[in-house]
Amino acid sequence: MGRQMTCTAPVNIAVIKYWGKRDPTLILPTNSSLSVTLSQDDLHSRTTVSIAPEYDQDRMWLNGIECPVSSNIRLVNCLQAAREQRKAMEAADSSLPSWSTWGIRIASVNNFPTAAGLASSASGYACLVYTLAQVLELPLTPSQLSRYARLGSGSACRSILGGFVGWEMGKLANGEDSLAYQVAPETHWSELEALILVVNDAKKDTSSTVGMQTTVKTSTLAQHRFASVVAERMQQMEQAIQDRNFEQFAKITMQDSNQFHAICLDTYPPIFYLNDTSRTIIRIVTTINELCPEIQAAYTFDAGPNAVIYAPKQHMPRLIQLFTYFFPAAHPLPSEEFFNDPYHCVPTGVTLGETLPSEYESLRDTFSVMPVGSVKRIIHTRVGDGPRVLSDP
Ligand code: DP6
């Protein structure tokens, strides 16, 4: 008889960006990074792992489609790391069942459509290794487990924990000290919320993996960032989180997003992830921060044009009103249940955005209403917890 387990894992969005590897096989970064784990009530990967003695080979299905395991070296590395640990446990204690010799089957789905414009590798690999560790009964702390997630995708190591999560770059060549750690749990600063402004849901031109290798090889600005910028920012950001100091959190978040996109531009040939809509979002947020003291917000952009806006809960209704005014809807929302929930996804421009409150008239002089569909949808979420077990064997 085999064993089976199902778990979910969250998405995370970095406020100090990881961009650059010192070891591309072990996925060891050139700088430490820090992220916010988003609520998996809204966005998550869900993975079932089964092991059985009769499975003759490892197999995986992603959103219902089988993906050959052997051609995915990162997946092979994750499975091998977990199996080796289990093997060592079995060698040390002969009473343990020999699960390390059984075949593994994995079925993973994301509850957020590709159209949400989010990378799924972080939540996907975090969910895979978390579920595998449950099935194989590996006695690992979340930090230790983050090493296995890192072998799948660098940013995945941060989705092993909830709340505010750091990834210490480490110094060792074998990566043993390159681990994720929790800076603060989600309950520490639960008023922090996020909006995801989906600008483009198409696959990005330059993948993170390829893009960051070119950056490491060619950008002199990146060398400056690794040597002289990130360590201090990590400390300042951890302090801002401990103090729940949104102003400081926002400043570092925006500066770090800017520097990440600056090193992309300094890469040769250059990499462009932001587009005109992204730049308008940046200008709107900085103008709001300057002209509207009652609203505070911070933008950040990963390897694509979609914006993530962090803001205190009480500022969200106003922010949503402004974004929906300046970015009218392209079309009604898709009918999926997820996108019909008014809390999780605001239909851009449909109801809220038709009028601009009189106190924001001055913004109308600075910005014109953007072409319909520049922002395709807005997802409203908050800080969340780490991976969860959904069912026992
Ligand atoms: C811009 O984790 O996707 O989102 O390690 O090659 O899988 P690989 O890259 P990935 O890169 C994420 C880059 C980023 C910044 C971040 O999440 O820190």
TrEMBL record:
Keyword hit for ATP-binding: yes
One annotated Gene Ontology cellular component of this protein: cytosol
Pfam family, one: MDD_C
Domain Mvd1 C-terminal: 194-390
SUPFAM superfamilies, sorted: GHMP Kinase, C-terminal domain, Ribosomal protein S5 domain 2-like
Residue spans crossing the bilayer: none
Broad class of enzyme this protein falls into: lyase
Catalytic activity: (R)-5-diphosphomevalonate + ATP = isopentenyl diphosphate + ADP + phosphate + CO2
GO molecular function terms listed in the Swiss-Prot or TrEMBL record: ATP binding; diphosphomevalonate decarboxylase activity
GO biological process: one example: isopentenyl diphosphate biosynthetic process, mevalonate pathway
Chain ranges of the Diphosphomevalonate decarboxylase-like N-terminal domain: 9-180
Keyword match DNA-binding: no
Annotated metabolic or biological route of this protein: Isoprenoid biosynthesis; isopentenyl diphosphate biosynthesis via mevalonate pathway; isopentenyl diphosphate from (R)-mevalonate: step 3/3
Family that this chain belongs to: Belongs to the diphosphomevalonate decarboxylase family.
Protein name as it appears in the record: Diphosphomevalonate decarboxylase
